[in-house]
């Protein structure tokens, strides 16, 4: 992790006060939360709408922090404890991360996309870890604060950092790319998330492509080549090295001979014909994510055998196509971390294709941040569900009522169930499910469908 004396840290920042008497103290790591302060940390206070972190600076020092930043616009910085007065603590944090990134002998892979970026991050990290010391974004640390903290937490012997980049508006991914200066960058796909903020899929494409702003001049850019919006906008960029992945044979890499079962997928690739990879993750869309990871692994000199090992040992971040078992023996697919029309369609298609179950059920919740056409997006999801493949549709939430409405165009009323109360939905599922059933849970993060999954598991 970041480890410097206060003097060295001051040399990296524009510090406005004299810290000579504290200059020898060593900073180890960075924290923005006094509840998680570790000995030697640099505490970074932020001014929020309701709380000003500067009021906790002394408490942070008392808990073991070696020093703290201090916004020059906040009056009366204490002189008896080591505070570094800077123009803006957030900008200072981001600057430290950028400088620390360049002080390490480190390669960076940046990943963004409307869907699949966390899964792809896990895959890339797992493949590269067969050859290198790899560290990756943890949890949701993928924004203008989380990414700098991730970089500053990197061990000094780290060889590769795999960094997820999220956004809600224009300019955010450009900032993250400039901070991290990736050697390789991936866009997994373009969906409908953030239409509310960005206005159109063209706008989402433009925002995601900001990832190339900090890409090294000779860095590799890999993107989902079956998305025409990406293809069109990439042509307008002056990029030296571009590769694509996807189902179409026009891509740099595409899958061959796919065989899927309830445990995962077997496939070959156009670049490694005759070599069978096993991916212990459900879904055709995850094969596309694996293709992106394979492109990056090849870029970093990982052998085919190492890639096979990396995919076979893959464990994804929780609530992403996670198969668990309920109290009665029913199989549960927990894909409830997030949802957009693209990812929900992919999950429903997956369940439709799986065989060997007595009954297959969908539990679908609201998809958020879809803008003015949100009701139509939900209706479209309901209309695409095949009653020959899915026996029951359960929805939760106000917007998800439109999924139920769309499903009723193809389903009998007794097979479509709409709920606004989570306890009532849990009770209904507990009564109706049995051994041999398969249940998919899918919704935006704010719907917290994992609470229902926990109820089923407990019985």
From TrEMBL:
Involved in cell wall formation. Catalyzes the final step in the synthesis of UDP-N-acetylmuramoyl-pentapeptide, the precursor of murein. Belongs to the MurCDEF family. MurF subfamily. It holds the Pfam family Mur_ligase. Residues 27-101 form the Mur ligase N-terminal catalytic domain. This is UDP-N-acetylmuramoyl-tripeptide--D-alanyl-D-alanine ligase. Pathway: Cell wall biogenesis; peptidoglycan biosynthesis. It comes from Rossellomorea oryzaecorticis. The keyword Cell wall biogenesis/degradation applies. It catalyses: D-alanyl-D-alanine + UDP-N-acetyl-alpha-D-muramoyl-L-alanyl-gamma-D-glutamyl-meso-2,6-diaminopimelate + ATP = UDP-N-acetyl-alpha-D-muramoyl-L-alanyl-gamma-D-glutamyl-meso-2,6-diaminopimeloyl-D-alanyl-D-alanine + ADP + phosphate + H(+). Its EC number is 6.3.2.10. Its main location: cytoplasm.
């Amino acid at each position: 992790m970041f480890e410097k004396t206060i003097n060295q840290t001051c040399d990296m920042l524009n510090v406005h006060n004299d810290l000579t008497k504290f200059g020898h103290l060593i900073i180890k790591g960075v924290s923005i939360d006094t509840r998680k302060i570790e000995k030697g940390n640099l505490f970074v206070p932020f001014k929020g709408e309701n709380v000003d972190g500067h009021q906790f600076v002394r408490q942070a020092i008392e808990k073991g922090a070696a020093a703290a930043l201090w916004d020059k616009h906040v009056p009366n910085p204490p002189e008896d404890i080591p505070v570094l007065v800077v123009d803006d603590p957030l900008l200072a944090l981001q600057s430290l991360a950028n400088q620390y990134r360049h002080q390490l002998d480190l390669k960076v892979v940046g990943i963004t996309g409307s869907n699949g970026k966390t899964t792809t991050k896990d895959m890339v990290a797992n493949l590269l870890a067969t050859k290198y010391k790899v560290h990756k974004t943890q949890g949701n640390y993928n924004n203008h604060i989380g990414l700098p903290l991730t970089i500053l937490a990197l061990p000094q012997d780290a060889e590769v950092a795999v960094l997820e980049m999220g956004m809600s508006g224009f300019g955010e991914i450009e900032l993250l790319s400039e901070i991290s200066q990736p050697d390789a960058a991936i866009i997994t796909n373009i969906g409908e998330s953030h239409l509310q903020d960005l206005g159109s899929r063209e706008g989402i494409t433009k925002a995601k492509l900001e990832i190339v702003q900090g890409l090294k001049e000779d860095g590799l850019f890999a993107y989902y080549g079956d998305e025409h919006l990406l293809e069109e906008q990439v042509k307008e960029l002056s990029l030296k090295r571009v590769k694509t992945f996807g189902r179409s044979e026009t891509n740099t890499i595409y899958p061959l001979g796919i065989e899927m079962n309830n445990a995962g997928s077997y496939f070959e690739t156009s670049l490694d014909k005759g070599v069978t990879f096993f991916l212990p993750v459900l879904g055709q869309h995850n094969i596309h994510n694996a293709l992106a990871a394979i492109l990056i692994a090849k870029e970093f000199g990982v052998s085919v055998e190492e890639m096979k090992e990396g995919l076979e040992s893959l464990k994804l971040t929780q609530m992403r196509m996670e198969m668990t078992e309920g109290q009665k023996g029913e199989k549960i697919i927990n894909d409830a971390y997030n949802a957009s029309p693209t990812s929900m369609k992919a999950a429903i298609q997956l369940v439709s294709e799986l065989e060997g179950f007595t009954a297959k059920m969908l539990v679908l919740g609201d998809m958020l941040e879809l803008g003015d056409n949100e009701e139509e997006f939900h209706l479209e999801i309901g209309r695409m569900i095949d009653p020959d493949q899915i026996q029951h549709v359960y929805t939760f939430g106000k917007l998800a009522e439109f999924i139920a409405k769309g499903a009723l165009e193809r389903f009998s009323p007794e097979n479509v169930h709409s709920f606004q109360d989570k306890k009532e939905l849990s009770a209904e599922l507990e009564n109706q499910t049995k051994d041999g059933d398969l249940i998919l849970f899918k919704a935006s993060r704010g719907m917290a469908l994992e609470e229902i999954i926990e109820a089923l598991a407990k019985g």
